[in-house]
Amino acid sequence: MASVYHVTLFISLLITTSTLLNSPCSASASPRKLALVKQQPLILKYHNGQLLKGNITVSLIWYGKFSPTQRSIIVDFLQSLNSPTTPPPSAASWWQTTSSYKTGPSTLVVANQVLDQDYSLGKSLATSQIISLASGTNKLSSVNVVLTAADVAVEGFCMSRCGTHASVRGKFAYAWVGNSASQCPGQCAWPFHQPPYGPQTAPLVAPNGDVGVDGMVINLAAVLAGTVTNPFDGGYFQGPATAPLEAVTACTGIFGSGSYPGYAGAVLVDRSTGGSYNANGVRGRKFLLPAMWDPKSSTCKTLV
């Protein structure tokens, strides 16, 4: 039976912030001193299980209709993770943090791409159908990634998850990420869309001009980092194995320095497009990538 990992939604954090900002304060209350509390280091425990290291083959299953431009954004992101010549801050340096986890670096290599533009299983998919789509290659050194189009509903999508990674009986790892552009952009494409709850700050401009696909890049980054550092339940995570905080989901909502719930932090802006980003990629691409937990510092590491 597959164990599923969720890309944490930002809603609980935003609700908490809104509650704090709107809590009444009695004018007659006696003054209180603010005590500075030292923040404890964030620790993801290693559970002595197998990690995915070395050359990892990534196969993409495009389910539904994606334009050639949309597909190129995703493929360029994956290729950017292993591009040593990209100027800093780079997507490759972001991915390099995974090499600080046990047993060294992992290199993702894009292999097969399958186009299922005719919705062979319909437009409403259960988790079991995602597993079926991902079961083409069952190798420990590979990850099959199912990417669903904006008009495809997936079990739990928007309600509890934006993407997942999981394993089937410990034999192979797979991942899924959905395009949330028309279903829940405020949840799964934040900060490129206003959230449904909490502070309503202006959204950032998507760096590649596609809110849904630029949001998919964020969630794909999260599930891939979780896949290589905790593929079979025994890797790095905090909390219960059934609902773990992993390499990126432990750092939810952080993209740049100074971030707090509802605010992504200080990021870079492309002068020509107005797009917000923190990572350079191949072919001039720019991406906004989430913070990743760094084992060396026990902190959520950002590129900017």
TrEMBL record:
So which residues are the signal peptide here?
Answer: 1-29
InterPro entries annotated for this entry?
EXORDIUM-like
For this record, the Gene Ontology CC terms, alphabetical, are: apoplast
Q: Which UniProt keywords apply?
A: Apoplast, Secreted, Signal
Q: Where in or outside the cell? A: Secreted, Extracellular space, Apoplast
Q: PANTHER family in the record, alphabetically?
A: PROTEIN EXORDIUM-LIKE 2 (PTHR31279:SF3), PROTEIN EXORDIUM-LIKE 5 (PTHR31279)
Q: Which family does it belong to?
A: Belongs to the EXORDIUM family.
Q: By what name is this protein known?
A: Uncharacterized protein
Q: Which organism is it from?
A: Escallonia rubra
Higher taxonomy: Eukaryota, Viridiplantae, Streptophyta, Embryophyta, Tracheophyta
